[in-house]
Amino acid sequence: MDSIQQFLAAESFAVAGASARTHKYGYKVFKTLVASGRRTYPLNPVTEQIEGHKVYPRIVDLPVVPKALSIITPPEVTQRVIADAIEAGVQHIWMQPGAEHEQASESARKVGINVIDDGSCILVLLARQS
Using CB atoms within 10 A of its CB, is residue 30 exposed (0-12), middle (13-18) or buried (19+)? Predict the structure, then answer.
């Protein structure tokens, strides 16, 4: 199973940078994962709710540790999110295009996390599968 298949096979997901603004990629990624039947938690420190889903400020605030984390944040935020993910025990991280942070990717790989940071987009992949 390749790294993308491993990510998508996870039993729980979180989306860092989830947004209540429907034109934002953070909204689209969150809604697409939810629509695909995946248990998905939105992460955003300034948003409280997205269409009835409680939004959590950080991974540590979630009711469970997600197995997989999709990141749609600026690189400087990505670095902090990945540090939290490493500490929490997340197993798979997918940095969406523009969210990549090279040092954070290296840190995650060093502890054995499956990292996708090659510019591939989860929205494109999930659209092909539906």
Answer: buried
18-75: per-residue pLDDT in tens? Answer: 999 999 999 999 999 999 999 999 999 999 999 999 999 999 999 999 999 999 999 9
What is the rounded distance in angstroms from the CA atom of residue 81 to the CA atom of residue 59? Answer: 8
Identify which has the larger pLDDT, 27 or 1: 27
Q: How many domains does the chain have?
A: 1
How far apart CA 8 and CA 77 sit, in angstroms, is 23
**Torsions phi, psi for 92 (to 5 deg):** -135, 135
User: Among 10, 26, 29, 51, which residue's Cα sits nearest to residue 127?
Assistant: 29
pTM strictly above 0.70 = yes
**How far is 17 from 99, CA to CA, in rounded Å?**
10
- Which residue range is the domain that position 104 belongs to? 3-129
**47: closest CA among 61, 68, 33, 32?**
61
Residue 4 C-alpha from the chain's centroid = 13
